[in-house]
Amino acid sequence: MTILETARELLATGPLCTACLGRPFADRSFGLRNDERGKALRVTANLEDDEPYEPDDDCWVCEGLCEEFDAYADRVVDALEGIEFRTYQLGTRVPPLLEENESLLREDAGLEEDAGEPLKSEFNREVGRRVGVRLEKEVDFQRPDVQVLLDLDEDTVEVQINSVAVYGRYRKLERDIPQTKWPCSNCHGSGHLTNRPCPECDGTGFRYPTSVQQEVAPTLVTALRGREGVFHGAGREDVDALMLGEGRPFVLEVKEPHRRFVDLETLEEEINEQSDGKIEVEGLRFATYDMVERVKEHDASKRYRAQVEFGASVTDEELQSALEKLQGATIEQRTPHRVDHRRADLVRTREVYDIEGELEDDTHATVDVHGAGGLYIKELISSDEGRTTPSLAGLLGVEAVVTHLDVLSVEGEAEAFEDPEFFY
């Protein structure tokens, strides 16, 4: 059949609005909206036939909903009031009855079931276009700031606010501060046992008084009017280690932010002032969501400085000889005792890229190590009862422990995190 003959078959099924008449032909012409296609077909059919094809009742396919695009756009705009965003995406849930009506319409006219486009797609486009014009926002089909769902069956408008990512670097300037919240194991983070405060955490619910996350997140979450802040670091240092140098890259993922246009430079100053010397952050920037995975997966090499205490006297010649054997060595490390309760018991191989040190006296030394990501430095020094080989203790034949450990730098940040496409 010709397009006009098919249109007559469609019109014969019952009252049709111009959008539902034009929609089955959406894949046969371009540059027109479905209502424009339908209007042209109806006018042409009326000119050639004696009986006009004008609907007396609501369209039996969409039940009049295609006449409500403007009204639905108004509802979406109202639902987005008070939410800051740059990009959006709109979706539609069509009632099963209307989907069945669409199938019957095409079947009665002898069309393939997938001819043209679905009612859902037209709603997404027509309502979405109106929303974009009114709010002067752009559509993003990948990772929009907000996603709106029109549920035509329930007659509701649902808004999902996608998280915002804030990238930066932190320095940890005091020891015994974990990277993220560390709930008390005694009270499981509640702060209470039966009817009394937990004695292990003094009722705080945390094993340590604060964390990098607790120093950084509240200021950003409050400013962005979010629900919570999830902290992602490019690796993590031990609780008792300092993080120095240019700092460790991190992303704070703020969930459900109602604001996105804030002055991060001012917030950076506020975080540093409130932290009172415990931590410092710098370089805060808004990043795309891809930066979250980029930071979490980054396996950077790191430079460390360890203060080492020996169980017996060591000469400088002995120390330098042992360090020379560790220079460029491949280290086999079985999961350390101190973390085997939360990590699989495996043997991992890691590289020592560079190592040097000097004695302070015959039982104390300072050792600088540049090692691959995942290299356990404390165990490289102590041997962890032979679980790490080779080790400084094993090569010297004396006990050796790290009394203080500082992370001097996280390598490869420029290559991994400075790509402009990950920021805005």
Instruction: Find the count of extended strands (DSSP E, 2+ residues).
Output: 16
In the CATH hierarchy, what is the architecture of the largest domain at level 2? 2-Layer Sandwich
Low-confidence segments: none
CATH superfamily assignment of the largest domain? THUMP superfamily
- Written as H for each helix and E for each strand, in order along the chain, the element string is HHHHEHHEEEEEEHEEHEHEHEEEHEHEH
Overall residue-averaged pLDDT value: 93
Assigned CATH class of the largest domain: Alpha Beta
Helix content: 25-40%
Please, how many helices? 13
Overall radius of gyration: 32 Å
Question: How many structural domains can be distinguished in the coordinates?
Answer: 3
User: Helix/strand/pairing class, anyone?
Assistant: alpha+beta
- What proportion strand? 25-35%
CA-to-CA gap between the ends?
Answer: 53 Å
The profile of the biggest β sheet is: 10 strands, mixed
List keywords for this structure.
424 residues; Alpha-Beta Plaits; alpha+beta; four-stranded mixed sheet; single chain; THUMP fold; ten-stranded mixed sheet
